[in-house]
Amino acid sequence: GWSMENVLDEEIKVIKSTVGTEDHVICALSGGVDSTVAATLVHKAIGDRLHCIFVDNGLLRYKERERVMETFERDLHLPVTCVDATDKFLSELKGVVDPEKKRKIIGKEFISIFDAFAHDLEEKLGRKPSYLVQGTLYPDVIESCPPPGSGRTHSHTIKSHHNVGGLPKDMKLKLIEPLKLLFKDEVRQLGRILDVPQGFLKRHPFPGPGLAVRVLGDVTTGNALDVLRQVDEIFIQSIKDAGLYDEIWQAFAVFLPVRSVGVQGDQRTHSHVVALRAVTSQDGMTADWYYFEHKFLDDVSRKICNSVRGVNRVVQDITSKPPSTIEWE
Ligand code: XMP
């Protein structure tokens, strides 16, 4: 009969026979559920002929790199090269305020790093890697070729082009997409069988361009990224402590490029405003803003202003999608 265990066995067989006993495979890990489960599955099939890369673009959340690398290495034993390209990304993003330009720059930088990784690997192995693993899901397959008249355009183009999926076309890599017939909940089930930690499988989605679309305007202004990381961490940790994390589709903080007047201690301050956003959703296409208890919001707001230097005002986003999008940029 049909079960996730059978899907797993079948996939491993298919991957083994596709890749054979000599060829090498590469995979870009984003830190998300899909690429992690896809890589774990391929690793199970072909072992260390899989070569993964994780790029720290300087736009990750608080301790994100350390956290995901620990899962990759300690829990999943994946062979991962971690590349810190923070300086390169941030220097390319300096002065850029247009959200689409930010996405283009990030996508282009990513491709060039991935390219270098593939070429280094080729030198090391004395042969070209032949396959590329992608964590494409069934809904992504539908979304990238929207049925005519379905009205699915803008945000899907964004997603498909700027996920870690958008990779060099001239590399002549054949694709392995072991999740392409599965829905998200099935991927989580598969991940559970593959011993991907439960907490990891339940992580909220995170956009490929990362905090670049959550610091409005120039991301390199002052210590905006660092402030945002601290605020976001307090918000997310509070949500987890309150047992609300799994009810929410996505929650995050946004750094606003405005200052407001405040009074902290006996000092007048002129500091930053941050926004909190949390939504419920089935698929990210539409979303409702999430109702927190007043007490919860009060605690979070106090905690943020008391512990994050440079923030004196916290607001909450109370808009659904539509008319807003989930992200602010
Ligand atoms: P929006 O903001 O369009 O977001 O309502 C819908 C979902 O997509 C995510 N998102 C992105 N994911 N690259 C990504 O990989 C992007 O450029 C991007 N923009 C938005 C967003 O976090 C939400 O889950």
Task: Return the CATH topology of the largest domain.
Answer: Rossmann fold
Pick out the low-confidence regions. 150-162
**Overall domain count:** 2
Q: Fraction of residues in helices?
A: 40-55%
Counting helices, strands and paired strands, the structural category is alpha/beta
SSE sequence, one letter per element: HEHEHEHHEHHEHHHEEEHE
Q: Give the CATH level 1 class of the largest domain.
A: Alpha Beta
Beta-strand share of residues: 15-25%
Which distinct ligands sit in these coordinates?
A: xanthosine-5'-monophosphate
- Described by its quaternary structure, the protein is single chain
* Alpha-carbon Rg, integer: 21 Å
Strand order of the largest sheet: 3-2-1-4-5
Mean pLDDT: 92
Query: What's the main sheet like?
Result: 5 strands, parallel
* Overall 3D form: globular
Terminus-to-terminus distance: 46 Å
- So, CATH architecture of the largest domain? 3-Layer(aba) Sandwich
User: Number of DSSP strands?
Assistant: 9
CATH superfamily of the largest domain: HUPs
Task: Work out the helix count.
Answer: 11
Fold and architecture overview:
The protein has 329 residues and is of the alpha/beta class. It has two domains: 4-201, HUPs (Rossmann fold, 3-Layer(aba) Sandwich), CATH 3.40.50; 214-316, GMP Synthetase, Chain A, domain 3 (2-Layer Sandwich). Helices cover 42% and strands 18% of the residues. It has eleven helices and nine strands. It has helices at 4-19, 33-46, 64-75, 86-93, 99-125, 138-144, 154-162, 184-193, 198-201, 224-241, 294-307; strands at residues 25-29, 50-56, 80-84, 131-133, 174-176, 250-264, 267-280, 288-289, 311-316. The strands form two sheets. It has a five-stranded parallel beta sheet with strand order 3-2-1-4-5, with helices on both faces. α3 links the parallel β2 (50-56) and β3 (80-84). It starts with a helix and ends in a 13-residue tail after the last strand. Xanthosine-5'-monophosphate binds at residues 103, 155, 158-159, 162-163, 205, 207-209, 250, 284, 321, 325-327.
